[in-house]
What does this fold into?
Amino acid sequence: MRHYVRKKQLICGALAFLIAVCAMGAFADAKVLGIQKKMAQEVFRFHVLANSDSEEDQTLKMKVKEEVLAYMKQDLPESESVERTKEWAVTHLDEIEEVAIRTLRQEGCQDLVHAEVTNCYFPDKTYGDITFPNGYYDALRIEIGEAKGHNWWCVLYPNLCFVDAVHAVVPDEGKEELKEVLDEEEYEMVTATSKFKIKWFFFR
It folds into this structure.
Protein backbone atom coordinates (compact mmCIF):
# COMPACT_ATOMS: atom_id res chain seq x y z
CA MET A 1 0.00 0.00 0.00
CA ARG A 2 2.82 2.38 0.93
CA HIS A 3 4.53 1.58 -2.38
CA TYR A 4 1.34 2.43 -4.24
CA VAL A 5 0.93 5.74 -2.38
CA ARG A 6 4.58 6.63 -2.98
CA LYS A 7 4.25 5.83 -6.69
CA LYS A 8 1.12 7.94 -6.90
CA GLN A 9 2.90 10.84 -5.19
CA LEU A 10 5.79 10.61 -7.66
CA ILE A 11 3.42 10.58 -10.62
CA CYS A 12 1.50 13.57 -9.27
CA GLY A 13 4.75 15.40 -8.62
CA ALA A 14 6.00 14.71 -12.14
CA LEU A 15 2.72 15.90 -13.63
CA ALA A 16 2.82 19.07 -11.54
CA PHE A 17 6.37 19.72 -12.73
CA LEU A 18 5.41 19.22 -16.37
CA ILE A 19 2.44 21.56 -16.00
CA ALA A 20 4.69 24.19 -14.43
CA VAL A 21 7.24 23.82 -17.22
CA CYS A 22 4.52 24.14 -19.86
CA ALA A 23 3.12 27.22 -18.13
CA MET A 24 6.58 28.79 -17.99
CA GLY A 25 7.10 27.95 -21.66
CA ALA A 26 3.78 29.55 -22.59
CA PHE A 27 4.72 32.65 -20.62
CA ALA A 28 8.10 32.80 -22.35
CA ASP A 29 6.48 32.43 -25.78
CA ALA A 30 4.07 35.27 -24.98
CA LYS A 31 6.92 37.41 -23.68
CA VAL A 32 9.03 36.82 -26.80
CA LEU A 33 6.04 37.59 -29.03
CA GLY A 34 5.37 40.84 -27.21
CA ILE A 35 8.98 41.97 -27.48
CA GLN A 36 9.17 40.90 -31.14
CA LYS A 37 6.11 42.99 -32.03
CA LYS A 38 7.59 46.04 -30.33
CA MET A 39 11.01 45.45 -31.87
CA ALA A 40 9.46 45.06 -35.33
CA GLN A 41 8.44 48.72 -35.14
CA GLU A 42 12.03 49.76 -34.52
CA VAL A 43 13.93 47.89 -37.25
CA PHE A 44 13.74 47.71 -41.04
CA ARG A 45 14.98 44.54 -42.67
CA PHE A 46 16.29 43.80 -46.15
CA HIS A 47 16.23 40.49 -47.95
CA VAL A 48 16.86 39.14 -51.41
CA LEU A 49 15.12 35.98 -52.61
CA ALA A 50 16.84 33.88 -55.25
CA ASN A 51 14.98 32.39 -58.19
CA SER A 52 15.80 28.88 -56.91
CA ASP A 53 18.29 26.99 -54.78
CA SER A 54 20.48 26.06 -57.71
CA GLU A 55 24.12 27.04 -57.33
CA GLU A 56 23.81 29.46 -60.25
CA ASP A 57 20.74 31.22 -58.86
CA GLN A 58 22.23 31.45 -55.39
CA THR A 59 25.38 33.01 -56.85
CA LEU A 60 23.28 35.52 -58.78
CA LYS A 61 21.37 36.37 -55.60
CA MET A 62 24.61 37.29 -53.86
CA LYS A 63 25.78 39.41 -56.80
CA VAL A 64 22.47 41.28 -56.81
CA LYS A 65 22.77 41.78 -53.07
CA GLU A 66 26.28 43.15 -53.37
CA GLU A 67 25.41 45.60 -56.16
CA VAL A 68 22.23 46.83 -54.45
CA LEU A 69 24.10 47.38 -51.18
CA ALA A 70 26.83 49.24 -53.06
CA TYR A 71 24.16 51.49 -54.59
CA MET A 72 22.51 52.08 -51.22
CA LYS A 73 25.84 52.84 -49.58
CA GLN A 74 26.32 55.69 -52.03
CA ASP A 75 22.74 56.97 -52.19
CA LEU A 76 21.07 56.11 -48.87
CA PRO A 77 21.68 58.96 -46.40
CA GLU A 78 22.47 58.16 -42.80
CA SER A 79 19.06 58.14 -41.21
CA GLU A 80 18.09 58.99 -37.69
CA SER A 81 14.85 57.00 -37.80
CA VAL A 82 13.36 53.82 -39.17
CA GLU A 83 10.61 55.85 -40.84
CA ARG A 84 13.06 57.85 -42.97
CA THR A 85 14.87 54.71 -44.06
CA LYS A 86 11.56 53.19 -45.16
CA GLU A 87 10.63 56.38 -46.99
CA TRP A 88 13.91 56.33 -48.88
CA ALA A 89 13.37 52.71 -49.88
CA VAL A 90 9.82 53.36 -51.07
CA THR A 91 10.90 56.29 -53.23
CA HIS A 92 13.87 54.39 -54.74
CA LEU A 93 12.27 51.08 -55.65
CA ASP A 94 12.64 51.74 -59.38
CA GLU A 95 16.34 52.48 -59.03
CA ILE A 96 16.85 49.39 -56.87
CA GLU A 97 15.12 47.23 -59.47
CA GLU A 98 17.28 48.77 -62.21
CA VAL A 99 20.47 47.92 -60.31
CA ALA A 100 19.31 44.35 -59.76
CA ILE A 101 18.22 43.88 -63.39
CA ARG A 102 21.44 45.34 -64.75
CA THR A 103 23.43 42.96 -62.55
CA LEU A 104 21.49 39.96 -63.81
CA ARG A 105 21.77 40.99 -67.45
CA GLN A 106 25.53 41.40 -67.11
CA GLU A 107 25.58 37.76 -66.00
CA GLY A 108 23.41 36.68 -68.95
CA CYS A 109 20.33 36.11 -66.79
CA GLN A 110 16.92 37.24 -68.09
CA ASP A 111 14.98 36.79 -64.83
CA LEU A 112 12.55 39.50 -63.85
CA VAL A 113 13.04 41.46 -60.62
CA HIS A 114 10.44 42.87 -58.25
CA ALA A 115 11.32 45.19 -55.37
CA GLU A 116 8.87 46.32 -52.73
CA VAL A 117 8.60 47.54 -49.18
CA THR A 118 6.32 45.12 -47.41
CA ASN A 119 5.45 43.55 -44.09
CA CYS A 120 6.35 39.87 -44.21
CA TYR A 121 7.05 36.90 -41.99
CA PHE A 122 10.60 35.91 -41.05
CA PRO A 123 11.51 32.70 -39.23
CA ASP A 124 14.08 32.83 -36.42
CA LYS A 125 17.29 34.20 -37.89
CA THR A 126 20.67 33.83 -36.18
CA TYR A 127 23.94 35.20 -37.49
CA GLY A 128 27.00 35.37 -35.29
CA ASP A 129 25.75 36.41 -31.86
CA ILE A 130 22.63 38.25 -33.02
CA THR A 131 19.26 36.50 -33.17
CA PHE A 132 16.02 38.02 -34.41
CA PRO A 133 12.92 36.11 -33.25
CA ASN A 134 10.37 34.95 -35.78
CA GLY A 135 7.50 37.24 -36.64
CA TYR A 136 6.37 39.92 -39.04
CA TYR A 137 8.73 42.76 -39.93
CA ASP A 138 8.73 45.61 -42.43
CA ALA A 139 11.35 44.92 -45.08
CA LEU A 140 12.78 45.95 -48.41
CA ARG A 141 12.22 42.77 -50.38
CA ILE A 142 13.81 41.92 -53.73
CA GLU A 143 12.39 38.93 -55.58
CA ILE A 144 14.43 37.43 -58.41
CA GLY A 145 12.49 35.36 -60.95
CA GLU A 146 10.17 32.94 -59.16
CA ALA A 147 11.70 33.83 -55.77
CA LYS A 148 11.59 30.21 -54.61
CA GLY A 149 15.19 29.98 -53.40
CA HIS A 150 16.78 30.70 -50.05
CA ASN A 151 17.09 34.35 -49.16
CA TRP A 152 19.88 36.57 -47.88
CA TRP A 153 18.98 39.13 -45.25
CA CYS A 154 20.31 41.94 -43.14
CA VAL A 155 18.92 44.98 -41.35
CA LEU A 156 18.93 48.39 -43.02
CA TYR A 157 17.90 50.24 -39.86
CA PRO A 158 19.81 50.24 -37.69
CA ASN A 159 22.63 49.40 -40.10
CA LEU A 160 23.43 45.72 -39.53
CA CYS A 161 24.17 44.72 -43.11
CA PHE A 162 26.96 42.27 -42.53
CA VAL A 163 30.55 43.00 -43.43
CA ASP A 164 31.27 39.26 -43.64
CA ALA A 165 28.32 37.63 -45.42
CA VAL A 166 30.05 34.23 -45.50
CA HIS A 167 30.51 33.95 -41.75
CA ALA A 168 27.65 36.34 -40.91
CA VAL A 169 29.70 38.55 -38.63
CA VAL A 170 27.88 41.57 -37.26
CA PRO A 171 30.33 44.50 -36.93
CA ASP A 172 30.77 46.12 -33.53
CA GLU A 173 29.51 49.45 -34.83
CA GLY A 174 26.33 47.72 -35.99
CA LYS A 175 25.80 46.27 -32.54
CA GLU A 176 26.24 49.71 -31.00
CA GLU A 177 23.61 51.14 -33.35
CA LEU A 178 21.27 48.28 -32.47
CA LYS A 179 21.82 48.92 -28.77
CA GLU A 180 20.87 52.56 -29.24
CA VAL A 181 17.62 51.66 -31.03
CA LEU A 182 16.41 48.79 -28.82
CA ASP A 183 15.67 48.95 -25.12
CA GLU A 184 17.70 46.86 -22.66
CA GLU A 185 15.30 43.90 -22.66
CA GLU A 186 15.07 43.77 -26.46
CA TYR A 187 18.83 44.00 -26.89
CA GLU A 188 19.41 41.29 -24.31
CA MET A 189 17.02 39.01 -26.15
CA VAL A 190 18.56 39.41 -29.62
CA THR A 191 22.05 38.82 -28.23
CA ALA A 192 21.00 35.69 -26.30
CA THR A 193 22.57 33.66 -29.18
CA SER A 194 20.17 30.70 -29.06
CA LYS A 195 16.44 30.03 -29.13
CA PHE A 196 16.71 28.32 -25.74
CA LYS A 197 18.32 31.34 -24.14
CA ILE A 198 15.88 33.71 -25.82
CA LYS A 199 12.94 31.86 -24.30
CA TRP A 200 14.44 31.30 -20.87
CA PHE A 201 16.45 34.36 -19.96
CA PHE A 202 13.23 35.79 -18.49
CA PHE A 203 13.40 33.29 -15.60
CA ARG A 204 16.84 34.07 -14.23
The chain has seven helices and six strands. The CA atoms of residues 120 and 136 lie 5 Å apart. The first strand starts at residue 44 and ends at 49.
